[in-house]
DNA sequence: GTGGTCTAGACCACG
DNA sequence: GTGGTCTAGACCACT
């Protein structure tokens, strides 16, 4: 089961939105290892987007090791997604660290940040 | 005193880098209210950047209320920068909130995030 | 005795992998002259691969003179595999020559290459 | 000074030929760090190839760290190409190693291989 | 002018 | 049917 959505009006490129959408689906477990992705043409039809754009997204996903493509068969979630999950985790944490650093330099107290975070787990 | 740096190799537009650079200089107190910004021509020379790009950045800064320009004299940091600081603070905090939400959905524990933040104040 | 393995995830076409696999089995002596190859249906079952793909590989092997097929009986390793072995040898050597040429142009010393090769016979 | 050639009749994709061509030009020192590459449109015109294909090649080159692109300015050889050269060297050597391993298994003697290599430095 | 993205439509090899 | 490559032509933001 997958849920891929894009906003064609966004300034973020469609293919990047696709990459991110599939990536989070995999990381959050909505898509399982070796599960087939929708075919390029099918997804292009569903989202009313040009197949080339889907293709570009799938190529980038394969480059990142999130997906593997078998010409003539289809595209599939990678068999081993542990690395992908770990990389994603580190990426998020380092983004938070960078942002927190900006916050500190901007005069925001540690308590304010931690309060903000605590709200989400309440 | 100002510290404005840009990386021409970055994919972030130069004018955006300029806006951000001035903005953080103001928020962090490196630039005081009513302090003059470097002239367009001077900064263009220092950074080896097209004056049009500097102009675009200054216009955006004025639009955001961070500086004001006096025709024939130049651009100056806004007299009242409290609003700017508050807006910046809220922006940072909401970015952290959004990122933490992603982290939560991706299976990152609250403790990991808080540890990451605590490191910066250690 | 044969050892034929294919990797469906590889971007190299499966039928090419099959050709190469049989070829090296013959060259390395794992398969003897006049030894029967597994039947198309049997191998297709074992490898979970479309029989058409096996058929395509066997046809290519016959075209290269590595096997011969007897209608109604099956495919067999060629009676005289000396030519096959010689051709394979020349192919490998010319590939090494081409690669070494690239290495030379890229500033790699002869010693580095010979060291690399010596390691394998150590 | 650069010399980029492609063979549209080859079965190797044009964009891959472009990547390889630029890569070897950089590795062999024909193109220096921070030297501008021909613009996408210009090269497309010279080679009578669609700009999209050039673009795809440049994107791949940037991904590999061989080139950096500045939207609105152009594409340039990376400032630091030491890593690129080292990676290329290792790639070539490991390809030679793999090939030599095949040679050994196929019954080719070490002397034959070394003779082949010695010829190139004669 | 530059690189980057997108659409439309075509062709190919593979299974 | 599939993914992959290519062409033609368009639009965008940035310099």
> Cα distance, first to last residue of chain A?
29 Å
Q: What is the overall number of helices of chain A?
A: 5
What structural category do the secondary elements of chain A indicate? mainly alpha
Q: How much helix, percentage-wise, in residues of chain A?
A: 55-70%
Which chain pair shows the most residues in contact?
A-B, 31 and 31 residues
Provide the spatial order of strands within the biggest beta sheet of chain A: 1-2
Oligomer: homotetramer
Mean pLDDT of chain A: 92
Uncertain runs of chain A are none
The run of helices and strands of chain A is HHHEEHH
Q: What's the shape of chain A?
A: elongated
Task: Describe the protein.
Four copies of one chain form a homotetramer. By secondary structure, the first copy, chain A, is mostly helical. Chain A has five helices and two strands, in the order αααββαα. Chain A has a two-stranded antiparallel sheet. In chain A, α1 crosses α3. The radius of gyration of chain A is 18 Å and the shape is elongated. Chain A binds chain B through residues 24, 27-28, 85, 88-89, 92-93, 95-97, 99-108, 110, 112-114, 116-121, and chain B through 24, 27-28, 85, 88-89, 92-93, 95-97, 99-108, 110, 112-114, 116-121. The first copy, chain A, binds a DNA duplex (15 and 15 nucleotides) through α3.
Secondary-structure map:
The structure is a homotetramer of 122-residue chains.
Chain A: H1 14-27, H2 40-47, H3 51-63, E1 67-70, E2 74-77, H4 82-105, H5 110-120
Antiparallel strand pairs in A: 1-2
Helix pairs in contact in A: 1-3, 2-3
The structure holds a DNA duplex (15 and 15 nucleotides).
